[in-house]
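Usage example:
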Amino acid sequence: QTLQFQERDFLQLLGLDKVPSPQKFQPVPHILKKIFHNQEAAATIGVSQDLCNIKELGVRGNALRLLPDQGFFLYSKKIPQASSCLQKLLYFNLSAVKDKEQLTMAQLGLDLGPNTYYHLGPELELALSLVQEPHVGDQAIPKPGKVFVLQSVPWPQGILHFNLLDVAKDWNNNLQKNVGLFLEILVKGHRGPGVNYQLEDTCARLRCSLHASLMVVTLDPEQCHHSSRKKR
Amino acid sequence: AVLPAPNVSCKNLCHRHQLFINFRDLGWHKWIIAPKGFMANYCHGDCPFSLTTSLNSSNYAFMQALMHAVDPAIPQAVCIPTKLSPISMLYQDNDDNVILRHYDDMVVDECGC
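Running the assembly step on the lines above writes:
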């Protein structure tokens, strides 16, 4: 009984309301491990450090969260645009961020997977847009709004990063606004109708290997006083 | 006048007691990715007058130990942490989010009166 009380108190200290019971461990990105080990090493040798500054990312903050994408692929019933390789709704649950916390970084990571497509294949273009309406009529296809990223997919691409701080702040201020992002990967300079089998193979591989996540850094003002205020 | 130094054995004197809690013993290894456990060190022990003139004790502890020697109704100075260090926790919550948080003043490094 006592241990349960103490456990609940310790969990509250961690900002949790009950013991998590994850089904499987998510992959931990290298940067989180690096920040963790740097922090542990500094504490071990007794170096005093500013716990509200994530120097590896160059932002202020005392909590980092890697949010997995909870969205889904979209298959439009109409014959897909010849140039469209894949369409996906990306959704990140920001409810874990407490009201008192300030967002200082929100970085979208898009991992298109290793050797996703042959570099001899068609050049691809990646478009990110806000979802204007979660769905149109009875179609579960969200209506994409303003495109805010449009770029060709470099080769080899590794993990692509996009700064979503303003979008995430908007979502965090009004959770109803968080209806996700619309990701579309297009074929640049598509040559007319007809199925291009290599293209179809490339797109199928992209759909299998695409992995999206949102890294958010937050600052708890109760634990982190504003850095500019000099100690009197 | 020199106060009689009480013959207190060293092990009863104020010092840091080390205690490591393995998260596996609590079943928390299923959601805490790192570290494997937590140094729950604590401070415990007497603060006799003789100690307050040597160990990293505060002047206040010196005065309180003096007062205690003169009037035992006044409690001895207490044994508390004098140096603490932070820890970082890398864990996963129920929404499959991976979270890294820093917690200040979590591990007792040194104790004093």
